[in-house]
Amino acid sequence: MPADSSSKQWSVTVAALRAPRVLPKSLRLAYAARMEHRPEDSALMLRYRDGDVAAFETLYRRHKDALFRYLLRLCRQRSAAEDVFQEVWGKIIKSRDGYRPTAKFTTFLFHVAHNCFIDYIRRNKRYGTTADVEPDSWPDDGDCPETLVEKSLARRRLNAALSALPDEQRDVFLLYEEAGLSLDEIATVTDCKRETAKSRLRYAVGKLRAALDERPEGA
Amino acid sequence: MSEQRMNTDETVDPRVSTAYRELADERTPEHLDHVVLNAARSAARPRWNSTIRWLRPAAWIATIGVCLAIVVEISLLQDENTAELDGLAPAAAPTATSANAERIDRPVPAAVQSAQKPAPELSADPVGRAVEAEVMKPARELRQQEPPMEDTAPFQLQPVPVTSAIEEAVTERFCDETQTADPNSWLECILELERQGLHEAARLERDRLAQAFPPPMIP
Predict the structure, then answer these.
(1) Which residue of A has its CA nearest to B45?
(2) Engineering a disulfide at B202: which of A121, B77, B97, B194 sits with its beta carbon 3.0 to 4.6 angstroms away?
(3) Which of A45, A63, A69, A169 is best to mutate for the B interface (most B CBs within 10 A)?
(4) Mean pLDDT confidence for A99-125
């Protein structure tokens, strides 16, 4: 495959991702109506505190993937991420009686996750020696082979750059992307100042952007 | 939401964010879902236990409260009864007097009549008088020891002490053991009693002699 065609394909993919996704009006209304009836996380947690297990299931399904990805990128080992994941939800379950909706549930959840990760690092002296998160093992979307190759390369570069980030910067970036927290909330979760969180996030994004901008060898 | 945060923070490159979104498409393993949801269900179940934990002291408190209420109620009732009796006492006196008058007018039953009969006159016989005096003495003493019968109390015959006194008098010996050991000396004692005019005592001793020794031995 010629190099110019590959770069054209890459730019097309990026342009498609950047393009605003406009939904038909009927779908937008249906989506808005559905969002209106979506119960708040804190309300679900309070319902679970009162014994409603279905509320917890809804809450769990809403946040489980984001939390798992956060822990997977943070721990860099699938088994460790699974252990910490269980530990986090175990603590959430245990703390249901004393739960007060003083902050966003996401902030509470990722604060617990952050603390569990810190505990995991303290417990596990071998943390950071190996990483077994392989981007190529993830399922494809049924794209053409060239796109798959491009995506795989991009994933590999981004994953390598993400793994190379210092723990604090990676933590802040993942809290921003996966948990959708603001800088103030990130500062709360990581027990640092807002400016510190912002600085860490800026450094992390700069390094990841540099990794994305790298052209593959031979391009 | 991410775009809004980017506008406010101006920290994150949308290209990095989009690339990360493409990269991060891992899902939570199903076995973790089962583990967490089962833990949530089992944690929600023992809420009954916590209720029962509160139920036991609550039951104790309720029981103690009911007991105290009963005790207080009973003491109040007793106080009320005492107060009523105190209030009725002056009014009850004339009633009792009139009741006595009615009792006097009423025909007296035969048993009561016999009990109310004046004591039979002591016989002229000195021995019989002595025996009667001995028989009646304990009854008289008992009557003196008894408190005066209240007007309100029902009239009751108390023959038991009198009977025991009679038995005691009948079993009394007029001849001592040395005299009763030999029939001749016992007979002499009986004759002496007759000589002294104690015919009733002599008769009692003669009967005893007849019981103790067969009749042929009596002259």
Answers:
(1) A51
(2) B194
(3) A69
(4) 88
Dihedral over Cα of A52, A58, A61, A64: its sign: negative
Among all chains, which residue has been given the structure tokens 């990026």?
A: A14
Using an 8 Å CB-CB cutoff, list chain A residues near B22: 17, 151, 154-155
Structure token digits, residue A36: 């209106």
Amino acid found at A33: A
A145-164 and A3-18 helices cross at what angle (nearest 10)?
70
Contact assessment for residue A72 and residue B26, using Cβ atoms and an 8 Å cutoff: yes
Query: Which CA distances in Å does B211 have to A162, B140, B187, B204?
Result: 132, 32, 13, 11
- Is residue B146's pLDDT more than 80? no
Calpha distance B83→B77 (Å, rounded) = 10
- Cα separation, A137 vs A126, in Å, equals 24
Residues 6+ apart with CB under 8 A from B26: A65, A68, A69, A72, A138
For residue B12, the chain A residues in CB contact (below 8 A) are 176, 201, 205
Q: What angle do CA B160, B164, B165 make, to 5 degrees?
A: 115
**Is the model more confident about B132 or about B103?**
B132
**pLDDT tens per residue, range B154-166:** 555 555 554 555 5
Q: How far apart are CA B209 and CA A199, in angstroms?
A: 136
d(CA B61, CA B10): 63
